[in-house]
Amino acid sequence: MLTKPRYQGILGSCVGLGSSIGPFIAASFTRSVSWRATFYFISPLAVVVAIALYFLLSPQTIPPEPLKVKLAKIDWAGIVLSSSGTILLLIPMSGISTQFKASDPMVISMFTPGSVLLAMFAINEWEFARLPMFPCKSLSAEGRTIR
To answer: Which of 119, 135, 145, 115 is nearest to 75 (CA)?
Structure first.
């Protein structure tokens, strides 16, 4: 029986191997054919992995609940705040000094609301989210969040 540390070790070794060997395989693959052919390779691979996961993973022990209850547990505000804040920060960051200057009004007008939205995301996760993406409070002995 595999334990959690063993799973983490296997996952860590796969990530390490993929990060070190993957670019070489991708480079040789795209060199012999077009880079667009990578998508024809990845799509069938994703289907094979999905089928393997369906048969190899054990069933989850999630208690049966109505869909409405499950959807109510999702941190929708956190998703919107983190996504929009990240987008508003990444767009100007990716173009500074190549497409526009750091003092450009567009950069400042995107950095400011992006920073505010990420701060609101942190406050939402800390105070309001029922099941936060990043648990901020200390955990009790049972593993539940103390609020």
So the answer is: 135
Same domain, 72 and 107: yes
- Helix extents (H) in the chain: 4-32, 37-56, 67-73, 76-95, 105-123
Residue 121 burial class via C-beta count within 10 angstroms: exposed 0-12, middle 13-18, buried 19 and up = buried
pTM value > 0.70: no
What is the total count of domains within the chain? 2
| DSSP three-state, residue 34 | coil
Which residues span the domain enclosing 16? 4-56
C-alpha 129/C-alpha 145 separation (Å) is 11
Environment class of 82 (CB within 10 Å of its CB; exposed 0-12, middle 13-18, buried 19+): buried
Please give the structure tokens belonging to residue 35: 């880079």
32-59 pLDDT, tens digit per residue, is 888 788 788 888 989 999 999 989 887 7
Q: Which helix (H) or strand (E) holds 147?
A: none
